[in-house]
Design brief:
By secondary structure, the chain is mainly α. Helices cover 85% and strands 0% of the residues.
């Protein structure tokens, strides 16, 4: 069961699922960007 404040923002299970899916997609993009940045930095430091 959702807390009342959360239920106001996400009134249906579909709304909750869409928000969580968006959060997951954003998280994956951030992790990918950090990996790319780390690899680029490592390459730069070797050169």
């Amino acid at each position: 069961m959702l807390e009342p404040a959360i239920a106001k923002v996400f009134p249906t299970s579909q709304a909750v699922n869409e928000a969580l899916a968006s959060l997951l997609a954003l998280t994956e993009k951030v992790v990918s960007a950090k990996r790319i940045a780390a690899l680029t930095l490592a390459k730069t430091e070797r050169d």
